[in-house]
Amino acid sequence: MGFSIKSKYFAPLLLLATPLSHAVVAGGIVSIGHRWPADSAFKKLTFFQQIINDGGRDAHYYWANQFYFKQGDGGYIGLQNRGNDVHAYNFSVWKAKSWKSENCSQFDHEGSGVQCQLVIPWKTGHQYKLEVSKEGNLVTGVVTDMMDGTSTTVGVIEVPETFGKLYASSGFVEEFSQGEGQLSSCYVMGNQSSVFLNPMGDDKTRASQSTYTYGNCNDPYVVQAACNNDACINTVNNLGAVASPSAPEVSIVNGKDLSAETLANMLRGTDLVVIRASDGRWAPNIYFPQPDTLKWKSLFVDHRASYSSLIRVNGDLSRVSKGEQIMYMSDGSSWKKINAN
Length: 341
Prior knowledge:
341 residues; mainly beta; ten-stranded antiparallel sheet; eight-stranded antiparallel sheet; 1 helix; elongated
């Protein structure tokens, strides 16, 4: 299809949180930029998206389309995978006054406004049309399954009289697992893939798009995004608790022990370090540093040497042999093995 890859590193939107043995809030992953003709102003914006892979029942993804009002604030409309096979539509407007439909309520996190949401069993592989239209001071969000023609009004939201027409938009993909469901690593995020087609204003003006990846899990082996003239695609890959080839590796001197100090010094500058042993690059003993000052840091052991090594971790010994790959993460009190599932 002639897609060109674009990747850009960006400051994380969300900081690492600290519940129990989990470590990563992935947050925003992919951004989709829209370019409209100069001085555009619309009564309706229409977005198109298709979710090919929703990440599975343990994932929490939001495929969102943001929109903005002249002399006003903004909002978004999109599809969500809320985990446990629950799919939903979400439609929100910041600084909104009230609502004229069911399934809506006020929100006051990350700003304030009105949010409307419906649990709907939308389907992967289907293409959806998501429309936001403004008549007077009422803004309506409608989602249509373009494969079966089913249309659903997600909500009707009342905005201040000062809000003007719709004039700008963008899109994003985020993984919002938090609390007890929070990810233990960026390398166990659920597989995701989606397509965002170019949006339209008032059914006649089409925007162009661009995309980039960013955030806490911005690894080129985990997240990819690309665009052509008609659409932007993106993917998230579950590496199964295996560090990507782009992760930094510790230097090993053959036959010499790998010290806790060496690993601690490397981890101070990054969230994950790979210990990759091979013939001619083997350490008989690998000493893990104390976990208390390295909370939420990870070590990945990729053992390819013919001789086994002893991992000295949590006051115990663990033997690692050729072909074994193990990822550990510090929870502040001990080093935990990360489950690939």
